[in-house]
Amino acid sequence: MLHIKCPYCGMRSQNEFSYGGDASVKRPELNKEISDEEWDNFVYNRKSLRGKHLELWQHLSGCRQWIKVERDTTTHEIFNTYKADEEIS
Amino acid sequence: MQKYSIFNLVKNAFSNHENWDLAWKDPAPKEEYDVVIIGGGGHGLATAYYLAKEHNITKVAIIEKGWIGGGNVGRNTTIIRSNYMHDENALFSEFGMNLWRKMSQDLNYNVMFSPRGIINLAHSDAQMNAYARRGNSMRLNGIDAVLLNREQVKEIIPMADFSENVRFPIFGGLMQPSAGTARHDAVAWGYARQADSMGVDIIQNCEVTGFDVTAGKINGIRTSRGNIKTKKVGLCVAGSTNILAEKLNMTLPIETHLLQACVSEPVKPILDRVVTFGAGHFYISQSDKGEMVMGGDLDGYNSYAQRGNLPTLQHVLTEGIAMMPFLSKLKMLRTWGGIMDMSMDGSPIIDKTHIDGLYLNCGWCYGGFKATPASGWTFAHTIAQDRVHELNAGFSLNRFSTGHLIDEKGLGTKTWIS
Questions:
Q1: Amino acid B78: pLDDT
Q2: Do A73 and B305 touch (CB under 8 A)?
Q3: pLDDT band at residue B356 under the 50/70/90 scheme
Q4: Mean pLDDT of chain B, nearest integer
Q5: Rounded mean pLDDT of B317-321?
Q6: A43 in a domain, yes or no?
Q7: Is A79 part of a structural domain of the chain?
Q8: Is-contact A53 A22, C-beta < 8 A?
Q9: Which residue range forms the structural domain that includes residue A58?
């Protein structure tokens, strides 16, 4: 069982959360010329890192906020959690 | 190679079975090969076998980081089927069914193929309609499909819950009578033994650390046991595809996720089919040892852990008990996990790449075991002829750019919910 610290609600069980995938994926900016390759990278191509992985989760059965979680994909250790709009240094 | 036969069995009995040949050798890597297959799982071993058998290419090495058959071919729930709706998947899988049917004879190795039939249960009128459509599509592609009503299903699997007041009543089901199971380890060992006998080098405990690519062409690979020169490299590494792709500066439409399976304690024969729950994701069959073999959803987040988490297992088994209440009385014998190369449309990729001499075989999601012979056959063709076969033409890497997705479930790119 993973325990995820929601930045709004505190430490909660994994059962309250829903997964949202790789958080490092950026949507291409709309007001400039976008190549097919950029769209492919946004929609389909993923690094699927082994080790530290920044990902989106939603606290679905809690505050319903989207959050970012930094988790190890091999050990499942969670290093840090952030609000969705938080800048990560 | 010593043939496995009743005659040889009797003959070796006189020497207490101490003089059987090794099933395959343990060679050191040579300096150069015509083809190097990375990954000694079912697909890699099958590819090497068909390269030797169908294309007469025997200067082949299989490079395996651990031991052969130690990954997903040794971790699956052994189900073999071709009940797909889309042409690409249906024709490819049905070609594989024909290879399964003669595999034991072909490999001189008993893979215990058991065409016991698979039943996908339906729990609503809408689902019955969807199954009728899928069944019709299957039959148009020459695959056997039978739509069963509630009474017919009850006759075949009376131990399922047919009471009136259940949340997901059984309306009927779609059955593929020719689907079934096989002894998974035997598939890996059978291919390995035959490939080895035709001259393929099976190199275990050898990790690939890098690739030698110059001017868009592959020239060799670097491994923990030295450099190997080759003009053709085939990747068959399932859940580790992204790790090797990173060494090639490739980003692929694949994510690695964890899938669990489990078996109960062995019990007397009760279930002689493969059955799937239609209101969730749960499938079950009974092994020859009597264990109930069960599986279901992914753990639901990117993972390379090869070990699972209990919430998913609880969720999956809740579905199992809803479908077949007697399961609640069984004790769990064993659970395990493996890492899946989940593609963005749920269908595989068997293709050439932008690097000359590098071939890709991945994206099997959790349907890789049944595809073993067809995957090996078509991948061997793709490598040997340097062009795709019509059976795997649809499984191209660029279909994600061109929009020719083969999305069997219509789920889109959320690999973790498929």
A1: 97
A2: yes
A3: very high
A4: 96
A5: 97
A6: no
A7: yes
A8: yes
A9: 1-21+51-89
Residue indicated by tokens 């969705």: A84
3-state secondary structure chain A: CCEEEECCCEEEEHHHCEEEEECCCCCCCCCCCCCHHHHHHHHCCECCCCCEEEEEEECCCCCCCEEEEEEECCCCCEEEEEECCCCCC
For the purposes of burial, counting CB atoms within 10 Å of the CB of B407, is it exposed (0-12), middle (13-18) or buried (19 or more)?
middle
Establish if A44 belongs to a structural domain: no
Contact B303 A76 (CB under 8 A): yes
Cβ pair B251:A46 closer than 8 A: yes
Query: Smallest Cα–Cα separation from B38: which of B265, B297, B220?
Result: B220
Work out how many domains chain A is built from and give that number.
1
Is the CB of B400 inside 8 Å of chain A's CB atoms? yes
Q: How far apart are CA B406 and CA B394, in angstroms?
A: 8
Residue A45 placed within a domain? no
Dihedral of alpha carbons B42, B47, B48, B50, sign: positive
CA distance B309 to chain A (A): 6
Span between the terminal Cα atoms of chain B, in Å: 43
Q: With beta carbons less than 8 A apart as the criterion, state whether A63 and A47 touch.
A: no
CA dihedral (A38, A41, A42, A43) positive or negative? positive
Test B243 with A45 for CB contact under 8 angstroms: no
Amino acid at A54: L
Q: State whether ipTM is beyond 0.90.
A: yes
Contacts of B24 (CB under 8 A, 6+ apart): B192, B193, B195, B196, B197, B202
Strand B232-235 and strand B35-38: the pairing is parallel
Q: Which two tokens stand for residue B275?
A: 């059955």
Residues of chain B positioned with their CB less than 8 A from the CB of A37:
401
Q: What is the pLDDT of residue B418?
A: 67
Looking up residue A10, the CATH number of its domain turns out to be 3.30.2270.10
- Does B128 contact chain A (CB < 8 Å)? no
pLDDT, tens digit (0-9, with 9 covering 90-100), for B396-414: 999 999 999 999 988 888 8
DSSP conformational letter for B215: T
Q: At a CB cut-off of 8 Å and minimum separation 6, what does B201 contact? A: B25, B27, B29, B30, B33, B60, B61, B62
Q: pTM of the prediction?
A: 0.96
List, in sequence order, every residue forming a beta bridge with A6; answer none if it has no partner: A10
Tokens linked to B118: 């698979």
> Structure tokens of B353?
């790449």
